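Let's sit down with a protein and look at its sequence and fold side by side. Once you have written the record down, we can walk along the chain together.
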Amino acid sequence: MFLFIAIDKTNSHLSFSGLLGASLPTMALHAPDFISTGTCLGGVMDKIDFPLFLPATRLERLAKAVTSGADAVIIDLEDSVNGDQKDAMRQAVETTLAGTEIAVPLILRINDSNTSEHAKDILACKDMRLDAIMLPKAENPDDCKQIAARTGKPVIALIESARGLANANSIAASCARMAFGSIDYAADLGIAHEGHALLHARANLVLAARLAGQTPPIDGVTAEIQNMQKIITEGRHGREMGFRGKLLIHPAQIRPAREGFTPTDEEVSWASRVMASAAQNNGVANVDGAMVDAPVIKQAQSILDTRLST
């Protein structure tokens, strides 16, 4: 059963209705809590790991995107829309969402705060049926706070520049979730868009999210749409670096991205042996010739939990 949530702007309560329109009791969760925690639809920000981008110019594909298997759909008003189309596409998104019930979380990527379109986007977002707003080129924590305050919606900060990474700690403390715009970041620094060149950035984003008590960030896109092995490999690298999930630009990327973030059979087998040994021994144990203590047990449990959730 799906639950649809409406925010009463008068008393800042959330009201729920069931799939068949059955009325459910009002939940006394106030808007400030809703905004600061970044939670809606039962904590959806913590559950979005594989969101799929959809250009605002291709809204006729919305139904297909919703049923693609992605965790959420990100309607893009930024890179995919030419400057002379911004107003028309913004209106098209408003019209489409006003008349459509969507069964997955919807996110809108707006234009960044240094553009003339940003203020228009924020004004329009206030009344759109959205679960979150993605801020591209996030560099200032105050931007995240202001967007959340003005729209009543949680913010996903997309880190795409040197300045954004430098301010990652304060940005993480001011948004609901972070994501890595790895291609733009690499271009900003003039470095290769390769795993080894982005180690520092990925490590710092994961650290910033951890210090803020936030769900791990979502990793950047793989530009190659049909190179399944590369998507799997980059997914595994992202998981090894501490990310949880990956931005997607085509439905064909969903399955390999999920596979990349799923622990392998070998990892699960090792984790199961560790947990079995821990249950039989008090204190330090030995598995496959290696010491097993509390941190190793924690790592093994994390692998098993991840396998169950994917």
Summary: The domain at 38-260 is CATH 3.20.20.60 (TIM Barrel). The chain is about 40% helix and 15% strand. The chain has three domains: 1-35, 38-260, 265-309. Residues 1-42 have pLDDT under 50 and may be disordered.
